[in-house]
Amino acid sequence: MSTRSSVLITGASSGIGATYAKRFAGRGHDLVLVARDKARLDALAAQLRQEHGVAVDIIQADLTQSRDLAAVETRLREDTRIGVLVNNAGASMFGSFIDQATDDVERLVALNTIALLRLASAVAPRLAQAGEGAIINIGSVVGLAPEFGMSVYGATKAFVQFLSQGLSLELVPKGVYVQAVLPAATRTEIWERAGADINALPEMMEVGELVDAALVGFDRREVVTIPPLHDAVRWDALDTARQLLLSDIRQAHAAERYQQAAA
Ligand SMILES: NC(=O)C1=CN([C@@H]2O[C@H](COP(=O)(O)OP(=O)(O)OC[C@H]3O[C@@H](n4cnc5c(N)ncnc54)[C@H](OP(=O)(O)O)[C@@H]3O)[C@@H](O)[C@H]2O)C=CC1
Ligand SMILES: CC(=O)[C@H](N)C(=O)O
After folding, report:
1. Domain carrying residue 53
2. Complex ipTM value
């Protein structure tokens, strides 16, 4: 990827997205910042132009609205300066599945998965054609853990992880790097927005530490970066177990334990 390629960041008005914006501006990249809150995007853009001398465009968009989403897709398809997509915009939702309104969970899935998917789909063919570029997708450790009791949010993040791993296999041979970043609890507004008390959590990573660690993984071209995972061997063990399971999938016959007993 060319050093000076522009970076388009969704959910850049606060938290992890705003921090990515500061870090990429610090590296000299021009930016395209996307979120709903135009006043916050304007303020951040002005700060980054002044502090780092980079060009910053903003796109006000609600990524759950198809017209807004289409405008961002068009920008990704047509603006050949954009070499990095940070698919970060997202929301969380607590509570049990039966208490969550159907329309609310659909909106969560639209933001956390459909928008992310459509933006990756908009930019990937152009990056593959150019033979360079990167897509960073923000997942969550919750996507590894149905036990956490956040079934829909976790499912969206499992989607992000799987999609990223699959796209990595497809796109790395074409010169395009794909990274899934899996944070755990990080101090941002997402908790309050979802109605959770941030002070009730025992431990929380600061957002600067999270993004700096994610960028170490980015610079190393890691496929899956889990900043709060302290022993990397655990991830390798999970992947090895998955490969072993796959090697025991034999398609021709059902496993013996499922064979009907002879009459
Ligand atoms: N903080 C944490 O503990 C963790 C966060 N993550 C993930 O990190 C990502 C960023 O979250 P975080 O920084 O923590 O939270 P924030 O709430 O601080 O940031 C969320 C960002 O997404 C934007 N956004 C929300 N809804 C929409 C929408 N409908 N259309 C466009 N933009 C939208 C918000 O901007 P605006 O309101 O202006 O639209 C904001 O910029 C999410 O994908 C989240 O799931 C993963 C694991 C842990
Ligand atoms: C932000 C969340 O709701 C969630 N706990 C997460 O860690 O992804």
Report:
1. 6-258
2. 0.98
Assess whether the C-beta atom of 31 lies below 6 angstroms from ligand 1.
no
Q: CA 176, 179, 180: angle at the middle one, nearest 5?
A: 150
Kindly report the protein residue whose alpha carbon is nearest to atom 42 of ligand 1. 90
| pTM metric for this prediction | 0.97
Residue 1 domain flag: no
Amino acid at 29: H
Q: Count structural domains, the chain.
A: 1
Ligand 2 atom closest to Cα of residue 92: 3
Contact of 67 with 40, CB cutoff 8 Å: no
Residue 20 annotated as catalytic: no
Instruction: Give the whole-angstrom CA distance, residue 250 versus residue 37.
Output: 52
Structure confidence by residue, pLDDT tens digits, 51-99: 999 999 999 999 999 999 999 999 999 999 999 999 999 999 999 999 9
How close is the Cα of 262 to the center of ligand 1, in Å? 57
